[in-house]
Structures are given as structure tokens and as C-alpha cells.
Write a structure and sequence with these properties.
Layout lengths: L2 H23 L4 H16 L13 H27 L2 H4 L6 H12 L6 H18 L7 H8 L1 H26 L4 H22 L4 H35 L2 H8 L1 H13 L5 H19 L3
């Protein structure tokens, strides 16, 4: 299948998942939701193991996948906490900053140079972020929000983790030759295991999780199906094309999710936020080197 269609399908499913996540998180804690979703995703993935050729799954690949999923679980929990505490049209656009952080870290810590195109893209990311958080008559509002808002710090933490997991995805699919199907199946099981450990560490009891599930089970099931779909589509697309190209299309989910979710949840200033998201997407595309 064409990688662009797979990436676009991933974007649409991801946007739908984000909107449904916001709906579910209105009635439960982020950790409870994440644990229940991870367990359900693992259950959905179990039948796929019957189609896995275990002879093609190496120990090094599973080790890298286990590390990648630990980082991914922490990033997912951070994003869910941010979505619960922020407007969807404010939390989702922040995820577009990943390419800028990658380029900046490479410049600061690896000595890589920055092209004029990348510098221009970073400028657009800063401008888009400013427009996203600006308030009338208060020029310093965006800076103050970033310093004081726990939700924004959670998004930044998730960005750093997602940057690493995107690189590890490509490593697994190319250098370690892990196929998308076993990668997806093992990924769900590893993630569920991590979230069970998180729940135990946080003192979550089966009774509390059961209570949370009873009032939100329908939404969790929908999110699980959508999440499985967009992750699988993204993995298949990444196996066929460069990760930067796949992510460039996948980021459209931010626009779809923010605008549709913003209307559904009656969020404010959607026209300004739409402009900010467009600027952010253009900046991210410039940095990623995509046309």
C-alpha cells in the first residue's frame, strides 16, 4: 500500500483517538485511563501473535523495543495528563514542536550545523507557539504560561521522549529488521506491562480501576481500537518511507483533532489557534526537509 495513504490514515485515526481520549479523561484520572487502555490494547493484540514468525524476531530487537516502549509509555502518560488539564486545541499543537527540539539538540550536543531552512522552521515554530498562547493586551502571556503551567511542561517532557522513540522505530524496522506485525503485537504487551507497574507503584487497586472502567468503558474501547489502528498504520508507513516524511503527514492529526475537538468541547479562539497550528506545521515541515 502507498505510504502516504497509510500516513494520512494514521493522522485521521490519531485525531479521532485524541478527541475520544479527551471525552474519556473528563471523567477519570490520566493514569487510570492509561492503564485500562494499555490492558485493552494488549488484549486486542494477542490474536496477532498467531501470525508472528518468531524465528524473525531477534533478542536485540526485543530489547530495543522494550526500552522504546518504556519511553513511549511515559510519553503517553504525560500527554494524557496534559490533555486532561488543558484544552485539546492547546495541548495537541504543542506536539508539533518535536522536529525543532531534535534539530536544536543535534546542534547543541552533537555539533551538527543548522541550515537557513531549519532556522526559519524554528522561527515559525516559535511564532506559532506564541500565537497559540497569546492573550490580548498581554505580550508576555505565552512566556508566563510556559513557566507556570504544569500541563505545558508535561507536553515538553512527552516531546523529548517521542523524539527518541521515533528514532528507535526506524532502527527497529530497518537495522534490526523487525516487521510491523510482531512489532505492533509485542509493543502492546510491553506497554501494558509497564502501565501495570506504574499502577502498582501509584497504589492503584483493581477495585479502583474497575470503578473507573464502569463509567467510561465504551470510550476506552473506542480509543483502544483507534489507537491500535493509527499505530499500526504509522508503523507500516515508516517501514516504506523515511520517518520524517511519515511524521510530516501524521502531524495533520493535530489540526484535525484540535479543530474538531475544539468545536465539540466548545473551546475558545479556534480561528487564532487554527492559524497558529498552520504556522507550526509549516515550520515542522521546513525543519524535517519535506516539501
Amino acid at each position: 500500500m502507498n505510504w502516504m495513504l497509510l500516513a494520512f490514515a494514521s493522522a485521521l485515526l490519531s485525531a479521532a483517538a485524541s478527541i475520544t481520549e479527551k471525552k474519556a479523561l473528563l471523567g477519570m484520572r490520566a493514569l487510570d485511563f492509561s492503564v485500562l487502555l494499555a490492558l485493552l490494547n494488549a488484549a486486542i493484540a494477542l490474536p496477532f501473535f498467531f501470525a508472528v514468525d518468531f524465528a524473525q524476531v531477534s533478542g536485540p530487537a526485543l530489547t530495543v523495543l522494550a526500552v522504546k516502549n518504556l519511553l513511549g509509555a511515559l510519553a503517553f502518560l504525560s500527554v494524557m495528563s496534559a490533555i486532561r488539564n488543558l484544552e485539546l486545541s492547546r495541548a495537541l499543537p504543542m506536539l508539533v514542536l518535536t522536529p525543532g527540539l531534535v534539530a536544536l539538540c543535534a546542534y547543541l550536543f552533537l555539533g551538527e550545523s543548522l541550515s537557513l531552512r531549519e532556522i526559519g522552521g524554528m522561527g515559525l515554530l516559535l511564532a506559532g507557539t506564541y500565537v497559540l498562547e497569546m492573550k490580548k493586551g498581554d505580550a508576555l502571556a505565552p512566556l508566563r504560561i510556559f513557566i507556570t503551567s504544569r500541563g505545558h511542561w508535561l507536553v515538553l517532557a512527552a516531546l523529548a521522549l517521542f523524539t527518541i522513540t521515533a528514532v528507535l522505530d526506524r532502527l527497529l524496522l530497518t537495522d534490526l529488521h523487525l516487521r510491523p506485525l510482531p512489532m505492533m503485537a509485542f509493543q502492546q504487551v510491553f506497554t501494558a506491562g509497564y502501565f501495570v507497574l506504574f499502577a502498582i507503584a501509584a497504589g492503584r487497586t483493581p477495585g479502583r480501576l474497575g470503578t473507573a472502567a464502569r463509567g467510561n468503558g465504551r470510550w476506552i474501547l473506542i480509543v483502544a481500537i483507534l489507537t491500535f489502528g493509527y499505530r499500526y498504520a504509522q508503523i507500516e508507513a515508516t517501514a516504506l518511507a523515511a520517518v520524517a516524511l511519515v511524521l510530516a503527514i501524521k502531524r495533520l492529526s493535530v489540526f484535525f483533532g484540535s479543530m474538531i475537538g475544539g468545536r465539540l468541547f466548545h473551546e475558545s479562539d479556534l480561528l487564532r489557534k487554527a492559524l497558529a497550528i498552520i504556522v507550526l506545521l509549516i515550520g515542522a515541515a521546513l525543519i524535517a526537509g519535506t516539501p
